[in-house]
From TrEMBL:
Source organism, top-level taxon: Eukaryota
Key words, A-Z: Oxidoreductase
PROSITE patterns, per the entry: ALDOKETO_REDUCTASE_2
Active site: Y58 (proton donor)
InterPro entries: AKR, Aldo/ket_reductase_CS, NAD(P)_OxRdtase_dom_sf, NADP_OxRdtase_dom
Family: Belongs to the aldo/keto reductase family.
Native source organism of the sequence: Scleropages formosus (Asian bonytongue)
Residues that hold substrate according to the record: H116
Every NADP-dependent oxidoreductase domain range: 26-273
Pfam families associated with the record: Aldo_ket_red
The keyword Heme is annotated on this UniProt entry: no
Protein name: Zgc:110366
Record site: Lowers pKa of active site Tyr: K83
Gene3D superfamilies hit by this protein: NADP-dependent oxidoreductase domain
Length: 289
């Protein structure tokens, strides 16, 4: 493990189709494993991270607002992503939910607002109809400047194709599960073709990838940690990457991924670990929760 690397001072960005630049490395937050105020302040203030991913569903928007304020980082230097939960789909609900997220976060605008999941369950309506109506609300929020970019999450190619037929603005981002055991290359290729930035969540496979022998072998070879190898691999694939940690030392470790690169054969070695393993599955009863 090499902790004698300078903290992240500046982070490469990925250009969205509307010309904005999203930092390629962000900090994940979630309702699982708790929320650490100290760790988020540390990430922003001491590590120089400028991109945080959250969602109404994670139940920590209000806490995140407090952490952001305490960090002292000016709003315009931050990239804040939040997500619309399917229980809030529909035109008016979506508008209200976005305003509520902004209020909880203590901000006037979001840098990126995502539809969290393609499916929902509204009696008498198809999911496609509801997605289109919801997306129209996001398009208006974008036009009004309340959301500087809009996107989707967990959308497959068919969902994106349908939305393209139904909508005015093609999503700027699709955020999906991406780690050594889950590598949806066809979806990534489709997103690239359509000008949709591909963002990957669970880059450490929720910690499961960190004990894989190949990841360990590469960590030894590069004198890095297993987490750094996984995050570097994701970033080196051009994927916007949002590892989560509630521990300051791990956040620092997860930021130190720009001072080295993996050889092509090692990129391929990790690519060979793909086994279609998905860690995130949502089910209908959750929508209204
Ligand atoms: N759009 C979606 O549907 C969706 C779904 C899931 C996640 N996400 C987003 O993606 C983010 C990341 O996903 P995730 O949290 O599920 O998975 P992850 O980032 O792959 O893994 C997080 C886990 O790894 C541990 N960890 C972090 N850094 C470590 C390190 N350097 N060494 C050892 N262990 C480490 C964390 O524990 P400690 O906290 O104890 O360090 C935590 O248990 C989430 O926070 C969320 O923002 C989005």
């Amino acid at each position: 493990m090499n902790l004698n690397v300078r903290p992240l001072l500046s982070c490469p960005t990925v250009r969205l189709s509307n010309g904005l630049h999203i930092p390629i490395l962000g900090l994940g937050t979630s309702h699982h494993g708790g929320y650490s105020h100290r760790a988020v302040v540390y990430a922003l203030r001491d590590c120089g991270l400028r991109h945080v991913d959250t969602a109404k569903r994670y139940g920590c928007e209000e806490q995140l607002g407090v952490s952001v304020k305490e960090s002292g980082v000016p709003r315009h230097d931050l990239w804040l992503t939040s997500k619309l939960w399917p229980g809030d789909y529909g035109y008016s609900n979506a508008k209200r939910a976005c305003a509520d997220s902004c209020r909880r976060l203590g901000v006037d605008y979001l840098d990126l607002y995502l539809m969290h999941w393609p499916d929902c369950s509204i009696t008498g309506r198809t999911n496609r109809e509801v997605r289109a109506e919801t997306w129209e609300a996001l398009e208006e929020l974008y036009d009004e400047g309340v959301c500087r970019a809009i996107g989707v999450s967990n959308f497959q190619i068919a969902h994106l194709q349908e939305l393209k037929e139904d909508c005015r603005i093609v999503p700027h981002v699709n955020q999906v599960e991406f780690h050594p055991f889950q590598q949806p290359w066809a979806l990534m290729e489709y997103c690239h073709q359509e000008g949709i930035v591909f963002e990957g969540y669970c880059p450490l496979a929720k910690g499961e990838a960190l004990s894989h022998p190949v990841v360990h072998q590469l960590a030894d070879k590069y004198n890095r940690t297993p987490a750094q190898i996984c995050i570097r691999w994701s970033i080196q694939n051009g994927v916007v990457t949002i590892p989560k940690s509630t521990k300051e030392e791990k956040i620092l470790e997860n930021c130190q991924v720009f001072g080295f690169s993996l050889d092509e054969e090692d990129m391929d070695y990790i690519q060979s670990l793909h086994c279609h393993k998905k860690l995130i599955h949502l089910t209908y009863p959750l929508w209204n929760g």
